[in-house]
Every structure is written in structure tokens, then in C-alpha cells.
Design brief:
This protein is an all-alpha fold. The protein has helices spanning 18-35, 42-69, 75-108, 131-152, 157-184, 192-224, 234-259.
């Protein structure tokens, strides 16, 4: 009989169908969205989105089983996962740096095609002391509540759970206000480089807020199911790091795109 004991501290994951299925789903989503530019594939697009959500749910379910019930996430594994999250956040930071670079390049040296001025003519920018300032206050407040919740998880889970839910509500409120802001915008994505970079930068940040809110919602559900302990709450650690990253990016966006242009 073969010896199945391992002599290393790493967690060798079992064969899983979810990465392959998710890859095909994301590829199909891209193709369907491209085809939808000329045809109506709304039902197919909805079906593909539902498949992505189902795959994500089952993939997360397996991860929760491995970490919480099977005990595969040892201290060494958790440290490596944290390092991976740091690398992921750094990659996301450079993703947004590309938008900041584009905005600064176009604003400091505007081209002839947009009239050698920034913002270009006929672009009526938002008042930075209106919805953008309120959104800034909301995200800064959510950063405070998530930090408070994270610090209390070791000795007061009830209060930590309450503060985590407040953070989730603030994240949803931010997304609603940004949607209202887009509806009130007097320029579109097609209005010169300014419109393109504005909606690209703020839109991708909005997507990250939605992802972060979902991340925190999963933490709330798991905290309510008593999955977190004093020494083992890696999911919450990574979610709080991601949320602070979202806060930091928004502050840079607010200063560059809203306040500086006013």
C-alpha cells in the first residue's frame, strides 16, 4: 500500500473543474458582449452571467470547506495566501496607475484635437462638493467601520458583525450614488479623451467597489455561521485589505478627476 503521507507544508489542491469552467464562461461572456453590439443576445448574456455566479458559488464553497472544515489552511498556507493577496493588490494598483497616467498626460499637455484646453470645450464637469464629496465621506467612513470591525473580531463578534454590515450598507450606498451621478452626467464616454478616461477610471473603480462589497457580504454570511475564530479569519483579513485599497484609489480619483478639474 502506497504511503500517502506528505513531507511538505504546502496544500496540494485536489482536481477541480471550476477554474476551467470559469475560463470558458468568461470567454463566452466576452464573445457574447462583442456580438451584442450588432445583435440582441440579452438572454444568452443573462444565462452566461448566471453560470458565472453558480461557478463562483461552488468554487467558494470548496474553498470554505478546505479552509474551515478540513483544516488545510495552516499558518504557513495563510501567510502565503496573504503574500499572494499583496501581489494581487499591487497589480491592481498598477492597473489604476495606467488611468492616472493617461489623465495626467492628457490634462498637462492637451492635444490640438480637443482645442488645446482641459477639460475640452462643451464638457461640464461635476461639482466636486456635491455627490463626489459625499461619496468620499461614505468610503472614508466605511474604511473606519471595517477597521473597527476587524479589530473587534477577536473579542466582540457581535459588535464586529454589526460594524461589518454597516460597511456593506455604505458600499451599496456608494454604488447607488455613483449610478445617480452617471445618470446626471452631461457628457458621455464618446466625448473626447476626457469622457473616455473619466468613465473608464470611475467605472472600473465602481466595479471594484461592487466586488469588494460582495467580498464583505461573504464575510458577513460566514461570520454569522461562526466560521471565523480568534486566530483563523483569513477571509476577513483579505476583504479588509481589499476595501482599504478601494478607499485609497477613490481618494486619488477624487483629487485628480473631480477636485483638480473644478
Amino acid at each position: 500500500m502506497m504511503n500517502k503521507m506528505k513531507n511538505h507544508p504546502f496544500h496540494m489542491t485536489t482536481n477541480s473543474p471550476w477554474p476551467l469552467i470559469m475560463s470558458f464562461n468568461v470567454m463566452n461572456l466576452l464573445f457574447i458582449n462583442v456580438i451584442s453590439l450588432n445583435s440582441n443576445f440579452s438572454l444568452l448574456n443573462l444565462f452566461n452571467l448566471l453560470t458565472i455566479l453558480m461557478t463562483s458559488y461552488q468554487w467558494w464553497r470548496d474553498l470554505i470547506r478546505e479552509s474551515t472544515f478540513q483544516g488545510f489552511h495552516t499558518l504557513n498556507i495563510m501567510n502565503m495566501i496573504k503574500f499572494s493577496m499583496i501581489l494581487f493588490i499591487i497589480s491592481e494598483l498598477f492597473f489604476f496607475i495606467s488611468f492616472f497616467w493617461t489623465f495626467l498626460h492628457s490634462s498637462i499637455s492637451p492635444s490640438m484635437e480637443i482645442g488645446n484646453m482641459w477639460p475640452p470645450k462643451m464638457i461640464k464637469m461635476f461639482n466636486p462638493y456635491d455627490i463626489p464629496l459625499l461619496n468620499s465621506i461614505i468610503l472614508i467612513s466605511s474604511g473606519m467601520t471595517i477597521t473597527w470591525s476587524h479589530n473587534l473580531i477577536k473579542n466582540n463578534k457581535k459588535k464586529s458583525f454589526m460594524l461589518l454590515n454597516i460597511t456593506i450598507i455604505l458600499g451599496i450606498y456608494f454604488s447607488m450614488l455613483q449610478y445617480i451621478e452617471y445618470l446626471e452626467a452631461q457628457f458621455s464616454f464618446n466625448d473626447s479623451i476626457f469622457g473616455s478616461i473619466f468613465f473608464m477610471a470611475t467605472g472600473f473603480h465602481g466595479i471594484h467597489v461592487i466586488i469588494g462589497t460582495t467580498f464583505l457580504l461573504i464575510c458577513s454570511i460566514r461570520m454569522n455561521m461562526n466560521h471565523f475564530s480568534m486566530i483563523h479569519h483569513l477571509n476577513f483579513d483579505l476583504a479588509s485589505w481589499y476595501w482599504h485599497f478601494v478607499d485609497m484609489i477613490w481618494l486619488i480619483l477624487y483629487i485628480l478627476i473631480y477636485w483638480w478639474m473644478f
